[in-house]
């Protein structure tokens, strides 16, 4: 009989056919029967498994584990740690002490009986590097189940593990695994985790090395006395995070911080004081978006329908799903909105969202296009911070927070391989459903861009397209089947619910001028020209092209130089097609009166496309140009001639420097009148009544929305800045349906002219005030405010009261 040894090193280790490693921590009660069962089975089956040994790896037990009598068996050895560190540490010590051609790792409770070794050995003999017992594949038998909650947590954990660490393995945590001996010692020696996550780490090591892993169904039975406690589940998640971080290169860790710094620099004028700073070029969109975040948080806090609100456009209300409320972000950001306010929440969301978008493009480019991290960084920076993105960064989070688009593209590319069509189709469906709640129009444009790319790539590589179209089509059908039930009711509400509309018409001049593709945007740090940019765009938030002629010229050179690559051909076609489509249904040749029909005319009346501002299609060019730039940079940096590197890098620098963005313009925000901020309004507005700022808030001036959000949505407003229906055809318009009184007062504000107001105007005003359920009218300081005061006095037949920095008319009887 041999006495148990207590060592952390392998001393005089002999070579055997099979080593069995059993980690143990305070297993005084269970270890003896387990060792008896294992040694008896292996002794009876030496003809099959050959020579064997059992290594018990004690992880610093404080009970009598090291004195168990079964440890004196001649084929059993004990290795012991000086203190308790975790299962991972115990396995690392135990496997290091083995000498077997094959290594079996099994838990001390033998939840999977030792007899199941026969199944694992068969799988290993058929060429696998590891055979792991599984409770989640067909053929597995579970006699005694764990507690239902633990099973659910285990399944959720396995889903996460498959998605992030070991694709294709359904059950990594079953404690019964057989390995090729040399590979096991290599994998465990290279492991770093001391906890339960070591199973994942070792399997990930084998997976990344290209070693086949067989998942084998086993009989399994839950044993009492499990060492897995409630706190171990978050520990495994922490181990997963460590594994993910460890796989990253230093550049991969640096990139998110660089993109975050770029985002903060872009938003520096508002980011550090969002409550008191306003982005000038957002026009009224900052007020609108803060309202969107505020009303979503308020609806959730009061368990109201998140798809509707009557705080604007009272009493008719606003169909929030038919507006760009971005429930995919305004909902998760609701706690921050409730704690810090919508201005802070929106500011943080936009800066982090733009960062996440850039990181997502970087991840996709590194994974699919180039390995050089510097080239991928530059390409991703162009995709996320191109001039049209910077223009929309003033006002449209839905067009700059696009981190799901690269993930959707990657999942579609996975589908095309046909490897895991069902799983990838399901994931794509979930991603698509989430993107619907981030922004439908950007999703539509992304789908258009992907379609253009796919068509061009199919022409360039027909043999690949022939192999890909069946799994891709099947996967897309699965994705649709998953996505549609999740979005069916919200979309039904959007298109048929209260205050829904059919389409929003933007006129015939929403396309880009060809010159805008070559010009520089207003926010170009070196060449910005607000006058010229606004001549070529709808407004500062819709400068949808402006890539600059140097970048266009360099992109052309890249395409010519790398034309033999099918990817380059597809990207070039996508960019050119998107640019031409963005010119709209009529293309006017610059410096002439010649107009030609544009290809957009073919799709402009299709459902969904009819509401798109066609100039935005040029945004598709940004990631396409970014990928082209990444391809060129990688080739330049790999060039052996210094001259080629120098001139290549110089050309890229000259293309990017002119479009380097300046920080977005900001100014001191208009102060909320004391009448609102001090709560004086409360004595004027009763339950189910509204406070009526005059003229009504509208897309041209919506400061009253800021008043409302500053009070925590304490009162309701008629009018507002939103999309809603107009007329019997329910055509979409910006703002409330016009009423005589609101139109007249708006004209007074902008013209300074008061019409002759008689009984007919007074009677109409009385009807409109009643329709709005007005408790009080308010005229704040603004252009032509004296004329407005005169008009309101004439309409109400009584003077206003100056209080709290505004003129107020109390409409209650006897006031």
UniProtKB/TrEMBL annotation:
The keyword Iron does not apply. Keywords: Endoplasmic reticulum, Glycosyltransferase, Membrane, Signal-anchor, Transferase, Transmembrane, Transmembrane helix. It catalyses: a di-trans,poly-cis-dolichyl phosphate + UDP-alpha-D-glucose = a di-trans,poly-cis-dolichyl beta-D-glucosyl phosphate + UDP. It is an enzyme of class 2 (transferase). The chain crosses the membrane at residues 253-272, 336-362, 374-390, 443-460, 472-493, 546-563, 570-591, 611-633, 645-664. It is a single-pass membrane protein. The keyword Lyase does not apply. Its EC number is 2.4.1.117. CDD domains: DPG_synthase (cd04188). Belongs to the glycosyltransferase 2 family. PANTHER family: DOLICHYL-PHOSPHATE BETA-GLUCOSYLTRANSFERASE, GLYCOSYL TRANSFERASE. This is dolichyl-phosphate beta-glucosyltransferase.
């Amino acid at each position: 009989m041999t006495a148990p040894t207590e060592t952390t090193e392998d001393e005089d280790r002999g070579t055997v056919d099979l080593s069995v490693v059993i980690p143990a921590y305070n297993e005084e009660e269970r270890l003896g029967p387990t060792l008896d069962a294992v040694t008896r089975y292996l002794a009876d089956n030496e003809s099959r498994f050959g020579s064997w040994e059992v290594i018990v790896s004690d992880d610093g037990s404080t009970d009598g584990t090291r004195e168990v009598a079964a440890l004196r068996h001649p084929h059993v050895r004990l290795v012991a740690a000086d203190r308790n560190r975790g299962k991972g540490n115990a396995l690392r010590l135990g496997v290091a002490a083995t000498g077997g051609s094959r290594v079996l790792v099994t838990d001390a409770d033998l939840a999977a009986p030792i007899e199941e070794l026969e199944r694992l050995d068969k799988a290993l003999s058929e060429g696998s590097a590891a055979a792991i017992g599984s409770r989640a594949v067909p053929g597995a038998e579970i006699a005694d189940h764990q507690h239902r909650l633990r099973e659910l947590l285990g399944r959720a954990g396995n889903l996460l593990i498959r998605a992030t660490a070991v694709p294709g393995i359904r059950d990594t945590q079953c404690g019964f695994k057989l390995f090729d001996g040399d590979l096991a010692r290599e994998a465990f020696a290279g492991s770093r985790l001391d906890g339960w996550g070591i199973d994942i780490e070792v399997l990930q090591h084998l997976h990344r090395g290209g070693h086949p892993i067989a998942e084998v169904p086993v009989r399994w039975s839950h044993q009492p006395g499990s060492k897995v406690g409630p706190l171990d589940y978050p520990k495994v998640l922490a181990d997963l995070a460590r594994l993910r971080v460890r796989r990253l290169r230093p550049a991969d860790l640096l990139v998110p911080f660089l993109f975050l710094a770029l985002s903060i620099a872009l938003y520096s004028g508002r980011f550090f004081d969002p409550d008191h700073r306003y982005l000038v070029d957002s026009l009224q969109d900052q007020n609108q978006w803060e309202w969107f975040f505020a009303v979503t948080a308020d609806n959730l806090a009061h368990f109201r329908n998140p798809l509707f609100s009557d705080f604007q456009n009272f009493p008719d209300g606003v169909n929030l799903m038919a507006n760009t409320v971005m429930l995919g972000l305004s909902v998760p950001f609701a706690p921050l909105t409730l704690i810090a306010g919508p201005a802070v929440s929106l500011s943080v969301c936009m800066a982090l969202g733009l960062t996440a978008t850039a990181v997502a493009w970087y991840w996709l480019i590194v994974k699919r296009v180039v390995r050089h991290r510097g080239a991928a960084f530059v390409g991703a920076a162009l995709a996320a911070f191109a001039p049209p993105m910077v223009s929309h960064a003033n006002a449209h989070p839905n067009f700059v927070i696009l981190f799901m688009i690269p993930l959707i593209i990657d999942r579609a590319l996975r589908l095309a391989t046909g490897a895991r069509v069902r799983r990838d189709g399901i994931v794509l469906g979930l991603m698509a459903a989430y993107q619907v709640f981030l922004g439908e129009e950007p999703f539509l444009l992304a789908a258009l861009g992907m379609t253009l790319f796919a068509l061009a790539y199919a022409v360039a590589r027909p043999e690949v397209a022939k192999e890909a179209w069946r799994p891709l089509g099947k996967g897309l059908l699965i994705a649709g089947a998953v996505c549609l039930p999740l979005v069916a009711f919200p979309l039904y509400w959007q298109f048929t619910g209260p205050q829904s509309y059919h389409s929003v018409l933007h006129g015939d001049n929403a396309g880009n001028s060809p010159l805008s593709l070559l010009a520089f945007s207003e926010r170009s740090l070196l060449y910005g020209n607000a006058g010229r940019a606004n001549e070529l765009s709808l407004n500062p938030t819709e400068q949808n092209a402006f890539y600059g002629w140097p970048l266009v010229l360099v992109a052309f050179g890249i395409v010519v130089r790398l034309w033999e690559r099918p990817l380059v051909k597809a990207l070039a076609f996508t960019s050119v097609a998107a640019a031409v489509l963005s010119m709209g249904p009529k293309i006017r040749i610059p410096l002439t009166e010649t107009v030609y029909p544009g290809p957009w005319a073919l799709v402009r009346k299709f459902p969904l496309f009819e509401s798109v501002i066609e100039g935005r299609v040029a945004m598709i060019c940004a990631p396409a140009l970014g990928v082209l730039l990444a391809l060129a940079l990688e080739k330049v940096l790999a060039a052996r001639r210094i001259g080629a590197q120098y001139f290549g890098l110089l050309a890229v620098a000259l293309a990017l420097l002119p479009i380097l963005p300046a920080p977005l313009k900001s100014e001191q925000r208009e102060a909320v009148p004391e009448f609102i901020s001090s709560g004086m309004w409360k004595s004027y507005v009763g339950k189910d009544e509204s406070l009526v700022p005059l003229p009504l808030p509208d897309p041209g001036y919506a400061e009253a929305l800021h008043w409302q959000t500053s009070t925590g949505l304490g009162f309701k407003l008629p009018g507002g800045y939103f999309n809603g229906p107009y007329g019997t055809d329910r055509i979409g318009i910006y703002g409330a349906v016009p009423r005589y009184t609101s139109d007249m007062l708006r004209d007074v504000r902008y013209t300074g002219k008061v019409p002759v107001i008689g009984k007919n105007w007074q009677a109409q005003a009385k009807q409109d005030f009643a329709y709005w359920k007005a408790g009080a009218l308010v005229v704040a300081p603004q252009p032509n405010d004296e004329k407005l005061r005169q008009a309101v006095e004439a309409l109400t037949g009584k003077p206003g009261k100056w209080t709290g920095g505004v003129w107020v008319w109390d409409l209650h009887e006897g006031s």
